[in-house]
Amino acid sequence: MIGAEPLSEEEAHTWQEGWVKYHDTIYEYNEDIMTFLVMGIDKDSDAVKAAEGTDGGQADALFLVVINPQDKSIKIIGINRNTMTDIDLYDEEGAYITTTKAQIAVQHGFGDGMEESCEYQRKAVANLFYGLPIHGYAAVNMSAISAINDAVGGIKVTVLEDMTAVDSDFVEGSQVHLIGEDAFWYIKYRDIDTFGSADMRLERQEQYLNGFIKAAKRAVKKDISVVLNLYRAISQQMVTDISLDEAVYLASIVSDYRFDEDCFHTLNGETVMGEQFEEFYPNEDALYELIINTFYKEINEDEISYNES
Amino acid sequence: MNHKKYLMFLSVFIFITVGTVGCGRTQNMQSQPDAQSLQDMQNSQDTPKESDASTEEISSESTGIAYETAEDAHIDFAVLKEENPDIFAWIYIPGTEIDNPVLQSEEADDFYEDHNAYGETDDSGAIYIELANLTSMCDFNTVLHGRSGAGQEGLFADLYRFADPDFFKEHEQIYLYLDGNVLTYEVFAAYERENTSLIRTYDFTYLSGCEQFLKDLYATRDMSMNLREGWEDVTPYHFLITLTTQKEENAGKQFVVVAALIQDAAGTIDRVVIE
């Protein structure tokens, strides 16, 4: 066959599948990165199989933990539970009905409350993040928070808002050392009558996780068996596809990784009142940029091959 | 031969070629074929070509599947159908190597997945549509399949060029030649989707199926998706083509280039939308 018109020099570079051009720079997904989805499930009991339908428990806390072996960093992305995105609806028999826009946290409510619900949630988060690979997940029932908190010796925080309604010590601006149930309430409390309360809770969760990761790194460096003990202690309240061996291995390699204030990110956006519930609409441009900055790496000029057409 | 003489020779050669092959004009394919070129094309099919030494030379090299090309804005369907009656169209995408016949098999939907345009067993396959689509191109969405092969090989390997935002921006048009018509489409979307059959996922014979396809297209979240400005409101009343291909190493995904009809030279494209 006679070929089509010759390509100009500009056209002739070989565009690779998966490349992304952003602000005149070409990027590609960083294959070395490992991304894990951590879900806090609104259940005060062990993780047990639920009937198909909507009893799987909502994912009130959603975080992506991003491990980058290249720059040896840990990054956390907090996802507002009210983020409006595509949610797959299933009937009581577990059959797919349709896909609709809804708060991302409700996705976990569908399915069996175990692996199935986690897979649904993983898919919803991956889709929100433009098809991001998520390498593993851990869904932890809120009832496990005390055990997790105490395993690393508790967490010190400065109370971000007045929460004396749940604990008289939780005065805004005061320093508290969270031990046992205090950690549970500090992370979980939300006044649903206050507009934007989910946003404020997310701030507390970020603050807590920030302190927790630093404390966990110290604890793991001191004695790696803390991971083993913790994993076993909460295994009844957790659903995960990360094995104990994998968890210990990951903890051992990331204990030296950098994690500081600028490693924490949340989605920018706006919370508005929907018909019944609050709805958070992420700023898509900011989300796209966050994905580029976190999960992609720049292609060097010499990696761009040119055809000699 | 000096430069001036060379130019004179070239001018005479082009004049003879254009005048006798019957395309009417050499055409920059970036511009759309107009009614005149269609008329010329039809004339070229209806009237016997003049017997001329230079014509014969050209004809022998430019007819038949292997040597046919839409670069000259002319496709000889009579000759192509002699080679293989399953050929019903010719696709040409300027700026790419895609300049090939389009086929439909009555034997099996995926017959041309592993048969070439001559109908011979060939892993390269051919560009084809399934039986659910009409060869008249009057469906809401006609899905054209082609293989990418390994690396840059394969008839539709060049589709991936549309993933490059600059290439996408600069290359708007796709030409589809039918026997007696030339259709011009404008590419408005290029993206990666799950590797599921579009024809089986959406019922394009109903309004609802068309709407769902468009809803899903616009809701696609793919980091490298390209969407042309001004094409945010495609409706079920448009006529689309979707070119689809897959990489063997990424079997879970398919890459699609979607284009909408912007010019129907012979005015044959029409349909009733069933609500």
Short structural description:
The complex is a heterodimer of chains A (309) and B (275). Helices cover 28% and strands 26% of the residues of chain A.
Q: Can you describe what's shown?
A:
Chain A contains seven helices and 15 strands. Chain A is of the alpha+beta class and 309 residues long. Chain A has a single domain (20-295), classed as LCP protein (Aminopeptidase). Chain A has a six-stranded mixed beta sheet with strand order 11-8-3-4-5-12, sandwiched between helices. In chain A, strands 1-2-15 form a three-stranded antiparallel beta sheet. In chain A, strands 6-7 form a two-stranded antiparallel ribbon. In chain A, helix 5 (225-234) packs across helix 6 (244-254). Chain A is globular, with a radius of gyration of 22 Å. Chain A starts with 19 loop residues before the first strand and ends in an 11-residue tail after the last strand. Chain B has 275 residues and is of the alpha+beta class. Chain B has one domain: Sortase (Sortase, Chain: A), CATH 2.40.260.10. Helix content of chain B is 26%, strand content 21%. The chains are: A alpha+beta (309), B alpha+beta (275). Chains A and B meet through loops of A and helix 5 of B.
Radius of gyration of chain B: 19 Å
Q: State the domain count of chain A.
A: 1
Question: Unreliable runs of chain A, pLDDT <50, ≥5 residues?
Answer: 1-12
CATH topology of chain A: Aminopeptidase
CATH-defined fold name of chain B: Sortase, Chain: A
Gross morphology of chain A: globular
- Spatial extent as radius of gyration of chain A: 22 Å
How do the helices and strands follow one another from N- to C-terminus of chain A?
EEEEEEEHEHEEHHHEHEEEHE
Q: What structural class do you assign from the helix and strand content of chain A?
A: alpha+beta
Rounded mean pLDDT score of chain A: 88
Mean pLDDT of chain B: 80
> Secondary-structure element sequence of chain B?
HHHHEEEEHEEHHEEE
CATH class of chain A: Alpha Beta
- Overall shape of chain B: it is globular
The helix fraction of chain B, in percent, is 25-40%
Euclidean distance between termini CA atoms of chain B: 67 Å
Beta strand % of chain B: 15-25%
Q: Please tally the β strands of chain B and state the result.
A: 9
Distance between the termini of chain A: 16 Å
Look at the structure and give the CATH class of chain B: Mainly Beta
* CATH architecture grouping of chain A: 3-Layer(aba) Sandwich
